Amino acid sequence: MTNSATGPLPASILEALGRYDTPTICNAMEIVAPERRLIGYTTKQLVCPFPDLPPIVGYARTVAIRSVLKSSLPAEEQSKRRIEYYEYVGTGHGPRISVIQDIDGPDVGYGAFWGEVQSNVHKALGCLGVITDGSIRDIPQWAPGFQALAGSIGPSHAWVHAESFGGEVRVAGMTVKSDDLIHADQHGAIVIPLDVAAKLPEAAELCGRRETPILEIARSPDFSLEKLKAALKRSAEIH
């Protein structure tokens, strides 16, 4: 059983954000928070084995893992740490998204923390998906509907274990703190500041309206450079 505390934002806002893909949310962010144009989103490519899944929107559960080095904790302490980790993942604002940084340096992705077991367990704990620069495996046995963005796909888990959780992590160029609001799909992910989240759907619609005249002429059999210039002018006048 999971404990999903009432989030800082109404569920209706998260649902509205989920109607747009992540690139559109990035476009909208440029309107409502232009100072974040160069920060707050993934900048390196991640593997998405399930590109047809819809966007996910949830609060971050942050973890740092490693797999090249065996955990130095005694077995009993390892078991205790695992339970504490699951308690962290399964409680707090919901829905949740697991954001995991692999801290193995040049050996990042050496061992997969994620596979059939963890995807199903985290789904049961109230997570919608995972964003990690580490590796994942067991793709055919993956929890249905559970999204994944990963640095790589590999066969073994090596000595993989959670080194710490609840702190700040950096995954594919995106810095994330526990409880940050995350929007993600096959393209990547972005951190949404809570104070601008409610403004993004309207800004996303504005982006769409501005693109419409350009796309219409670009797709038209009557396309011409002069018509494109006119469409660009109309687009710039939409507010």
From TrEMBL:
Its cofactor is a divalent metal cation. It comes from the Bacteria. PANTHER family: 4-HYDROXY-4-METHYL-2-OXOGLUTARATE ALDOLASE 3-RELATED (PTHR33254:SF4). This is Putative 4-hydroxy-4-methyl-2-oxoglutarate aldolase.
